[in-house]
């Protein structure tokens, strides 16, 4: 590797999730902020969350007149 062209690699970079979970990884940045991690992501927790189900199918059927 050529010297003086690569960013500094931090082995103690801190990751902070919006759920409050924190852990340490290696990165070129000292602090990383993420929205989802393995503690709160539905794939890892096994929980299903419906984001927006307030009549979306009914509105679609009404708009395209699909009365089946």
CATH architecture: Irregular
Helix content: 10-25%
CATH class: Few Secondary Structures
Total separate domains? 1
Any descriptors?
Rhinovirus 14, subunit 4, 26% strand, alpha+beta, elongated, 68 residues, three-stranded mixed beta sheet
List the helices and strands and how they pair.
Blueprint: E1 10-17, E2 22-27, E3 31-34, H1 42-45, H2 56-64
Parallel strand pairs: 1-3
Antiparallel strand pairs: 1-2
How would you explain this protein's 3D organization?
This protein has one domain (10-64): Rhinovirus 14, subunit 4 (Irregular). 19% of the residues lie in helices and 26% in strands. It is built from two helices and three strands. The N and C termini lie far apart (65 Å). The model has no long low-confidence stretch (mean pLDDT 84).
Q: Would you summarize the structure shown here?
A:
The chain has 68 residues and is an alpha+beta fold. The protein contains two helices and three strands.
